[in-house]
Amino acid sequence: MSKPYEKMVRGRCEIHVYRQNGGYVLEIPIVRVVRRDGLPQRVQEYLLDRNVGHGGPGTFLTRDRVIWYRSEVKDGQSLEEVVSLSEKAVERIGPKILNLLK
Description:
The structure is a single chain. By secondary structure, the protein is of the alpha+beta class. It has helices at residues 41-53, 79-100; strands at residues 6-10, 13-20, 23-32, 58-63, 66-72. A five-stranded antiparallel beta sheet has the order 1-2-3-5-4. A hairpin with a 2-residue loop joins strand 1 and strand 2. It is globular, with a radius of gyration of 14 Å.
């Protein structure tokens, strides 16, 4: 995504909030991948598996050598609700991603 965005910090999460199509998109950077060989296959598989079954409001993606968690505020949801759910998902799954990158 391109700027402008607002940045907020909740717990250990830096949350980028974008206005888009009358709503909001949240992106949380999890980790910058500094490996020369890129993202290991086991991490790609784990992210795909989490996107299918973790039950959070968003999805994991990679962009610019960074793993992000991205979620959108849908009709009937408050920004605060999605921020809270996204933060919990990243704090629960983020450490597992970091372990897989070791």
